[in-house]
Inverse folding.
């Protein structure tokens, strides 16, 4: 039992060390309101038409 406690303490210490060396780590949880950082995804351009797949009937006739 004591080995589990020692392992947990060592693992927790290692995790805190890695997080402290990682830079800007926000452990504050989910953000709402003005402090939330939202980035908009780039809009897809409508000028490039999507390629339509060939109908299955045409593919079977080609055999």
């Amino acid at each position: 039992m004591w080995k589990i406690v020692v392992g947990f303490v060592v693992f927790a210490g290692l995790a805190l060390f890695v997080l402290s060396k990682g830079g800007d780590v926000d452990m504050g949880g989910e953000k709402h309101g003005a402090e939330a950082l939202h980035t908009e995804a780039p809009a897809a351009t409508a000028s490039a038409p999507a390629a339509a797949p060939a109908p299955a009937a045409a593919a079977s006739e080609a055999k």
About this structure: The radius of gyration is 27 Å. The first helix runs from residue 2 to 21. DSSP finds two helices and no strands in the chain.
